């Protein structure tokens, strides 16, 4: 403690909290001392520190800040840097560039086929190189930290003039150069979304050819929105594993799910396969705690879902927030005519089984990722409620996970998977990303009908030692950093 008596940076003592340290260890009473942007010490519950400002926590939980392992916040970070949907649920770090779509590198004026438009309005796409976007983030930081990934569909869009075919060897070389530039600039890896039109004609070999530059770098991420999450999911999982092995990269199975009633229950097999593969190569998963998903409006999804809600529609804005089947009845249109009237549009699809969702979330390799679409006018509630819903519904109400196991998924597990050595745990010497919450009160308030709602029970959030959420609102501080791989 001698070094703490002459502090060069401000000291903050969080007193009398219940520490959930992110490792999965049981909660314990302790005081947490921050010095500047660093966790200086974990002290006995009665310890005092001279010269420290102190905050009385009175038994509230204090945990490492949550890591949102799957986001589409690339542009939102710049447009809405207070990041209220995220800090209000305890999130201090977001992983961007998922599902094959990243804001960069995409030159200004480039055509933006769906689903690139899920990242925000066209004027946000103005970064021809990845480092240009990262520089913009560093110059105007957001309230949260960023783990950036590069999207394969974005590479395709900025390189190819015809997306309806596999890339030529020259085009692959061009994309490989863009990817190398991004990785040199600090991207953690690449994501793909071959489910989506701009990438659906990409072959396995195309992805391996482009990703080759990841192989020698070690510990890179390959995040995959599978080619198929319904009837042909087994083949899609094998494809992802093969790409991961070829690139010597960690496979992150994004928003793992089984879509469509005839596939419900199959998560027992898919998880067993992923677990088996995990003995041979690094693999992990992310998911959110809702039985509905959301993306662009597609008839194949509508037909798989038991219910579809329109999140937004440029073709007919009056459809926003409405039920697809109800509208169809009202308008007397067939499926194709509906699509024509509504497109381009986004939708929320109720197509998963609650038991699959819970089985996947409870799996020890699964992290928590919101997959929210931040610019949707009527978004899926996951953008605002994913983390608090896990804590309230799955931990407190259902007892599916212990509090420390849930926090581990949101913190230590994610930090380990993304190669962060200085975050994800409440330990001396690590960066001071913290959340203080009330385990008895914490609740998501965002619903499918009323999705833009801050959660209850998140009492304080610190990013790099600075408080960004005071329990009611964002403080306006923006201490977020673009994180670096270790
Ligand atoms: Zn996705």
UniProtKB/TrEMBL annotation:
Q: Which GO terms describe its molecular function?
A: hydrolase activity, acting on carbon-nitrogen (but not peptide) bonds, in linear amides
- A Pfam family annotated for this chain is Amidohydro_3
Q: Where is the Amidohydrolase domain?
A: 55-468
Name-wise, this protein is D-aminoacylase
Matching entries from PANTHER family are given as: COLLAPSIN RESPONSE MEDIATOR PROTEIN, HYDRANTOINASE/DIHYDROPYRIMIDINASE FAMILY MEMBER
Q: Which positions make up the signal peptide?
A: none
Membrane-spanning regions, if any?
Answer: none
The record's InterPro entries line, in alphabetical order, gives: Amidohydro_3, D-aminoacylase_insert_dom_sf, Metal-dep_hydrolase_composite, Metal_Hydrolase, Metallo-dep_Hydrolases_sf
Name its species. Variovorax gossypii
């Amino acid at each position: 403690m001698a070094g703490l008596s002459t502090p060069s940076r401000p000291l903050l003592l969080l007193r009398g909290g219940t520490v959930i340290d992110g490792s999965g260890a049981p909660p314990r009473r302790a005081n947490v001392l921050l010095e500047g942007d660093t966790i200086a010490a974990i002290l006995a519950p009665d310890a005092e520190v001279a010269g420290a400002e102190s905050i009385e926590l009175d038994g509230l939980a204090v945990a490492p800040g949550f890591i949102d392992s799957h986001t589409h916040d690339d542009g939102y970070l710049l447009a809405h840097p207070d990041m209220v949907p995220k800090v209000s649920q305890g999130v201090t770090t977001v992983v961007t560039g998922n599902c094959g779509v990243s804001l960069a590198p995409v030159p200004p004026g480039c055509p933006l086929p769906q689903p690139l438009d899920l990242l925000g309005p066209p004027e946000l796409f103005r970064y021809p190189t990845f480092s240009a976007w990262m520089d913009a983030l560093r110059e105007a930081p957001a309230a949260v930290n960023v783990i950036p990934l590069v999207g394969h569909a974005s590479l395709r869009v900025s390189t190819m003039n015809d997306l309806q075919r596999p890339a030529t060897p020259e085009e692959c070389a061009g994309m490989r150069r863009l990817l190398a530039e991004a990785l040199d600039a600090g991207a953690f890896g690449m994501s793909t979304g071959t489910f989506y039109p701009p990438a659906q004609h990409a072959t396995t070999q195309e992805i391996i050819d482009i990703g080759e530059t990841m192989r020698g770098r070690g510990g890179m991420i390959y995040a995959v929105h599978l080619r198929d999450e319904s009837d042909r999911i087994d083949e899609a999982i094998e494809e992802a594993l093969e790409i991961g092995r070829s690139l010597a990269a960690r496979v992150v199975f994004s928003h793992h799910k089984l879509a469509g009633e005839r596939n419900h229950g199959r998560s027992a097999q898919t998880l067993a396969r992923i677990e088996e593969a995990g003995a041979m190569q690094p693999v992990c998963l992310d998911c959110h705690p809702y039985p509905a998903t959301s993306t662009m409006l597609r008839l194949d999804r509508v037909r798989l879902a038991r219910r579809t809600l329109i999140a937004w529609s440029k073709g007919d804005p009056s459809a926003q927030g409405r039920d697809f089947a109800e509208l169809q009845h009202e308008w007397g249109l067939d499926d194709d005519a509906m699509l024509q009237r509504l497109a381009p549009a986004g939708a929320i699809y109720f197509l998963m089984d609650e038991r699959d969702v819970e089985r996947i979330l409870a799996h020890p390799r699964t992290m928590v990722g919101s997959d929210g679409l931040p610019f949707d006018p009527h978004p899926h509630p996951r953008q605002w409620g994913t983390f608090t819903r896990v804590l309230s519904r799955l931990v407190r109400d259902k007892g599916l996970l212990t509090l420390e196991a849930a926090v581990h998924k949101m913190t230590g597990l994610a930090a380990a998977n993304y190669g962060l050595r200085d975050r994800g745990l409440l330990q001396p010497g690590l960066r001071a990303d913290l959340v203080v919450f009330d385990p008895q009160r914490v609740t998501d308030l965002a619903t499918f009908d009323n999705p833009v709602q801050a959660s209850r029970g998140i009492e304080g959030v610190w990013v790099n030692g600075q408080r960004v959420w005071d329990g009611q609102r964002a403080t306006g501080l923006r201490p977020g950093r673009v994180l670096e791989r270790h």
